[in-house]
What does this fold into?
Amino acid sequence: MAELTATRAEICVTACAEVWRGDGAILAGPMALIPRLGARLAQLTFAPDLVLSDGEATLVCDDRPEGWLPYRAVFQVVAAGTRHAMMGASQLDRYGNQNISCIGAWERPSAQLLGVRGAPGNTINHAVSYWVPRHSPRVFVEHVDVVSGIGYDRATALGSPSNRFHEIRTVVTDLAVLDFATPDRSMRLRSVHPGVSTADVVQKTGFALVVPDAAPDTRLPTAAELVLIRQRLDPDGLREKELR
It folds into this structure.
């Protein structure tokens, strides 16, 4: 019965863990708390070969040091395509173009954000997924104001071989899991979190999603996964604050 008591944040942790399923021995790059909990959960359960760092230069497994990865070596990993990052997004469009740079016109933005950071290199060199803790039309927009990470339409326009490593795999939000498994690589609703309706997701998306006839529920964490999340990975419950 433990699965029935999972919180929305815990469902998001397991949904984030799932993005690394089947990746094998690659470097995970989770860039927020819930994705990091997801990566650690994956490493402890179905993805034991997944490689994680402590955010600096030490490779870790269950918080134990396992190796060393200096900053300069990260670029070699990125260029080799042996990484799967889970980034955030201030804006995302239907093809997965991401903006973390600024809101409004580039010449005179209404809000300055992070800048493009590593998004261009990440999205052209290796798999990328996105974590959006507050699903809203302000994030899911018809057109992003600045392209930081490239989506499927731009990658297609680049052509081969430039786009051979491009893959936007999954978008996890506080409401749903989305992907790009459509003929034109536009965003599709894969599942809704328990307690969320398809109409809720559609209403809070600023473009027309591809919606199946009956979207399934996102899977619940197992009892064993809940024990790991609550007792080992995040005993202080910080995951709950990320959705507030």
The mean pLDDT is 93.
